[in-house]
Amino acid sequence: MAIDSVFKHAYGVVIAGGSGTRFWPLSRRRHPKQLLTLFGRQSLLEQTLARIQPIIPSNQIYIFTRAPLLQNIRRLLPRLPSNQIFGEPASRNTAPTLAVAAQEIARRDPEGLMVVLPSDQIIAKPALFRRLLAAACRVATEPGRSVVLGLKPTRPETGFGYIRLGRRQGRVAGREVFHVESFTEKPALAVARRYVASGRYLWNGGIFIWKAATLLENFQRFQPDMAGLVRQIADAGGIRSQVFRRLYPKFQKISIDFAIMEKISDIYAVPADIGWNDVGSWAVVYELSRQDSEGNVRSGVGFSLDSQHNMLVSPKKFVVTIGIHDLVVVETDDALLVCTRERSQDVGKAVQQLERLGRDDLL
Amino acid sequence: MAIDSVFKHAYGVVIAGGSGTRFWPLSRRRHPKQLLTLFGRQSLLEQTLARIQPIIPSNQIYIFTRAPLLQNIRRLLPRLPSNQIFGEPASRNTAPTLAVAAQEIARRDPEGLMVVLPSDQIIAKPALFRRLLAAACRVATEPGRSVVLGLKPTRPETGFGYIRLGRRQGRVAGREVFHVESFTEKPALAVARRYVASGRYLWNGGIFIWKAATLLENFQRFQPDMAGLVRQIADAGGIRSQVFRRLYPKFQKISIDFAIMEKISDIYAVPADIGWNDVGSWAVVYELSRQDSEGNVRSGVGFSLDSQHNMLVSPKKFVVTIGIHDLVVVETDDALLVCTRERSQDVGKAVQQLERLGRDDLL
């Protein structure tokens, strides 16, 4: 089976609703992480599309986002048919998104395979990623099966869910495939260390592959209320109808992991050592960026005296540093963040503080 | 002799030509330190004037600055007669300034006493300062005498000149007066430590008192070339004439300390424990400002998480800090400085670097 034919019924479902508070002040409610140009010249969302466009044609790619981002994203992606970009009228996490996406794709193509892709990650080895997707699609072609790309852990991360591998299933299209024994929630540090050391656990990065029909059956079985809402939307004309706008907020707010993945058993993992990174903080952007001879990363003009290992982001201002080290400095038109690299995962706390202060203008 | 009568012939000569690179990016060539509002609601220059206005009427106060600052200063001081604010056509340090000031004042009032005041210092005890000036003026009324306010050293500062006290002369208007044995240049640290420990040395902060006629005689004797230029300017109509603009650049660039003070012997010091500070760096502004419970000083809006002992200056932006300590952060429309408090005396080096880079727009 050639790659082309594997992907004939594949539909990209790009999840682009994230609010991305961790890159404040550059990220805002209307300009979240997936729209930021943190690496190279493309936003993470554009990079996500560029990564799958060699294998999935644009008219088979759907983007789901929050309604307030719809116009921005349509402008950013002029080559994607605008009626394949959906703005959800309320944030309900991933399960409702994927349920309505499955309904839309199954209606269009009863053989349709969903390739679920978060829009705010980077993958250093895109060609390998595409070959692994081909294997995953082949596994998922069989009705009833779900597949997850299992990302090779590089550290005992406590912010991710893990996949516990079961029996090896052999090779598909040259790639190892395992049965998945269980999905786990975010572990404590000691547990995460055991997971990584064991070699039996992979990270769940939210990259799933299944037939739309399979997912709809799983919703019918494990989330009948949600399945009922999906049917109501379908009967009223689908996700482009006014009914969709009215009914969508009625969905429970729940992730696909909780709603479905932790409940099903006919599920497989394709281990993927693809240089995946979810780019969770400014410190990660620093690590992944080109550092100068002093270990500084600078986006914008300026100079540093006796300063090492800093991340300096200033689109407009001339930034001078003297004697500082291991800091993150991010400047926008209305705000300035100065934070140690070590504490950059706490930027979200600052955003919560802004919410408490009612500074919606800065969110 | 009442204070009023002591000051009858006193003329304030405020030196406001400094370029103030140490407060970059807030200070600029056209907006130097003396024009900054670092404390309270007034600039250092306005505070300098407010300090002497109870004893010297506005029409007896002269301000000497650089020509490019003339309009800014006239706008800042609308109540001072604008023809008492002079813009020097070239920067020639303090000796030429005081020579032409002496000529102007002697012409206006043959008994005129000059009270020379740098414009970029703070004095915590202004009432005591004025009483000490009264004593200094009484000493200086005698022809031939020069007087300096000797500032009580609080640390072995290597950036100032020191005054070595000679014989005690007794009290004048209730204040101690000493003969000055010598003026010294900026000492090395070990020397400065000896000076401070000895109790025989005071700081020279550039606050001088003498009759204009006395200073002119001293120029005639020790700097005859400069005295000749002063006479030429006087013959052509004084410092308001076109000739002034043409001749002033011909002056040697030299401080009053080198040109005159280190050469004369009829010189007296009035020790002054007046809470004097020359505000030499952002670290000093931090020390002198009101700190919040975390030891942070903030000018502008924002909040800090787990951040201590920082100086945050942002007139326009919302500044958030996380986990930082002992930093200086200063933001303007076009530039941003992030510097450790410890290294804030090196801001001048950054300005030199900007000069080398040809970034006149940022100077």
Describe the structure.
The structure is a homodimer of 363-residue chains. The model of chain A has no long low-confidence stretch (mean pLDDT 95). In chain A, the strands form four sheets. Chain A has a five-stranded mixed beta barrel with strand order 6-9-7-8-10. In chain A, strands 12-14-16-17 form a four-stranded mixed beta sheet, covered by helices on one side. The longest helix of chain A has 16 residues, at 126-141. Chain A has helices at residues 3-6, 44-52, 70-76, 94-108, 126-141, 189-198, 212-222, 224-235, 242-247, 256-261, 282-288, 347-356, and strands spanning 10-16, 61-66, 85-88, 113-118, 122-123, 146-151, 161-172, 175-184, 201-211, 267-272, 276-277, 297-299, 302-305, 311-313, 318-322, 327-331, 335-340. Chain A folds into two domains: 3-277, Spore Coat Polysaccharide Biosynthesis Protein SpsA, Chain A, CATH 3.90.550; 282-362, no CATH class. In chain A, strand 16 and strand 17 form a beta hairpin. Chain A is of the alpha/beta class and 363 residues long. Strand 17 (335-340) of chain A pairs parallel with strand 15 (318-322) of chain B.
